Amino acid sequence: MPAVRPTYDAVVVGLGIMGASALWQLARRGLRVLGVEAGGPLHELGSSHGQTRIFRRAYWEGDQYVPLLNRSYAGWMELADATHDSIAVRTGGLFVGPPASKLVDGSRRTATRCGIVHEYLAAGEITRRFPAFHVRDDAVAVYEPDAMMLFADRARLGYLSRATAAGAHLVHGRRVRALRSGTGGVTVSGDGWQVSCGAVVLAVGGWIGEFLPGEIAPLVTPMRIPVYEFDVAESCRPDHLPGRFPVFLVEDSTGALVYGLPPWQAGAGGLKIGFHNRQLSPVKPGADRRAPSDAERLELWRTIKDVLPGVRSTGRGKACVYTMSDDEGFYIGRSQEIDGVVYVSACSGHGFKFAPGIGEVLAQLAIDGRPALDISAFGPHRAASAGQGER
Ligand SMILES: Cc1cc2nc3c(=O)[nH]c(=O)nc-3n(C[C@H](O)[C@H](O)[C@H](O)COP(=O)(O)OP(=O)(O)OC[C@H]3O[C@@H](n4cnc5c(N)ncnc54)[C@H](O)[C@@H]3O)c2cc1C
User: Fold this and answer.
1) Beta strands at 178-182 and 8-13: parallel, antiparallel or unpaired
2) 8-48+153-218+327-385, what's its fold?
């Protein structure tokens, strides 16, 4: 009897930014693809929702990210062209801290070694160029003029609309319960339904442990982390708008790392600000949406009020999820646990900007098993400190 052809060449499970990007990459190659998402198109239970994200390439986290960042930069520009929509705005990026901090020292080293355009600014120069910022005399900054603010929901929906235009099928509101590999490929099943396919791209963020319990679950921890929108004093508002106000990271003398972005459009609320490495607590994905307390909001405000004196203590907070790995690097690869499955997870609070590059890598892995970029730095067996030892 001839082998039965699977219904799809590939199924993408999870349509956060990684799944959405992979779906487009598969569909544009003319493959028969299905994307399955447990939530609605704009649900807020994963990590990809919201108005904005930071894109930067002077990456304090290490040079190993730069090839994927360069690929992603080109990918964001391509998505903007394909959707005729504004996907990103170039704001510049300001990375402030003590000269020897991991942020300033790391950003400068990566930028220098990898040829990323940047400037090194002393304290007085920071305030002269960016009047909203008042930094200590001993602080310095790396300024990356090509850093951008990405429009997150718009980018994700852009990928989904390009994918459907290229023939992809989409299903929202269906949870995948099981993946089973066999001779003809992989069977993907949920409550009362199943489809067969040649390969699965598993892009379920913090839920990955449900599918790869031996291989990836022990390596990742979903964490609740709050993000805030802070009000800005009326008289200072013009200094906090794109054009005068870059996306930023600030590291203080205790090692606390704070990120922030201007309002996504003039008149649209305050500044988006959050701790990157404080106020994290383990959580079951999708479970703890408890709004941040006043004490949590004030802890953050006290950390940034001297650097950004125009920012008021008032504002609104939301709980979000980071899916963390121990070394804060991503996991991308081909599953050893279920044949025919490739995966991404542990985007560790900084993965959004990489979505075009990671989506392409996932599509290449799913199709012929070989990505064009070297992704050995993101495999589960990497050395714990790979790429960071030179600092
Ligand atoms: C507050 C905050 C700020 C951030 N800021 C930045 C930034 O400035 N720059 C940056 O680069 N990155 C940033 N990040 C990180 C970035 O947003 C994440 O790394 C990225 O969104 C992870 O995307 P993902 O697709 O892997 O996961 P997710 O967005 O969590 O998507 C996984 C999807 O899988 C679905 N799913 C789960 N289980 C199933 C199932 N069984 N069946 C079907 N569907 C399922 C979920 O519903 C979800 O939609 C930030 C993250 C947060 C939370």
Assistant:
1) unpaired
2) FAD/NAD(P)-binding domain (3.50.50)
